[in-house]
Amino acid sequence: xxxxxxxxxxxxxxxxxxxxxxxxxxxxxxxxxxxxxxxxxxxxxxxxxxxxxxxxxxxxxxxxxxxxxxxxxxxxxxxxxxxxxxxxxxxxxxxxxxxxxxxxxxxxxxxxxxxxxxxxxxxxxxxxxxxxxxxxxxxxxxxxxxxxxxxxxxxxxxxxxxxxxxxxxxxxxxxxxxxxxxxxxxxxxxxxxxxxxxxxxxxxxxxxxxxxxxxxxxxxxxxxxxxxxxxxxxxxxxxxxxxxxxxxxxxxxxxxxxx
Length: 259
Ligand code: BJW
Known about the structure:
By secondary structure, the protein is α/β, with parallel strands linked by helices. It has two domains: 6-34 and 82-126 and 172-249, 3-Layer(aba) Sandwich (Rossmann fold); 43-79 and 130-165, SIR2/SIRT2 'Small Domain', CATH 3.30.1600.10. It is built from ten helices and nine strands. Strands 3-2-1-7-8-9 form a six-stranded parallel beta sheet, with helices on both faces. Strands 5-4-6 form a three-stranded antiparallel beta sheet, with helices on one face. Strand 2, helix 7 and strand 3 (122-124) form a beta-alpha-beta unit. It is elongated and about 55 Å long. The chain binds ligand BJW.
């Protein structure tokens, strides 16, 4: 049953939690100017479906198109800065760990904005767009900050380079899944923030947290398939609501990019 004042209820739950697990999605980066996954197609890309481009089959069929799309998104992400939602999550981690608690940030985002905000214990479930890997050798590369000039890009070994992200039908990195399961089984508060909760396995994480006895909450302007399951549903933008939660959790460290 949703709480009448979900912001205060979430803040109260954070204050008393021993281990908070936060799952984030593209909505958390929306206020930084990066389009959400399902809103990503504008301009030249308007006629494409992101769900069709984010697949190994699309890359195999048209590596030039897929790598152009990812490189444009990579450059777009680098031009964005963490927003108050990212920064509030980093401060919450700092507060919780300072009092001997645990904070685990499971992110589906590939933009690295949580790292840039100063979050430390971040698990990248879907990889990152900032690292690319050779399809021939598996070797990873961090491309320079400028747009790529060759599509599809190639590694020095001559193999095609692809973004080090997880596409539909691919397994999540084993280490990320193991870290997520361990944290979910240990947590006493689970918050799902800025995700449509339609992509698995992340969309099922709430069930693991609930089985572990954790309280659960959601922050999103819209309701999602997990809304009926949560104890606290806060409707609104994470960049506005997370700073309010932080304010109600205790003294605030100075804001700014990084720590
Ligand atoms: C705001 C806001 C603001 C706006 N503040 N909020 C079980 C059942 C059914 C299917 C499956 C299943 N298990 C596996 C599958 C298949 C598949 C899947 O889930 N398909 C579904 C579509 C049905 N999953 C997989 O294939 C996964 N692999 C896997 O499970 O391997 C084993 C296996 C394979 C096959 C069969 C069975 C098992 C891999 C999933 C990889 C997802 N990869 C992507 C692309 C990454 C690279 C890239 O970015 O291009 O990850 S897809 C895309 O979706 C991306 C995102 O991380 C992910 C989630 O999206 P997200 O973050 O929720 O974004 P949006 O846009 O959907 O939502 C934004 C939300 O923000 C909205 O709710 C807004 O309201 C909100 N918002 N502004 C807060 N200011």
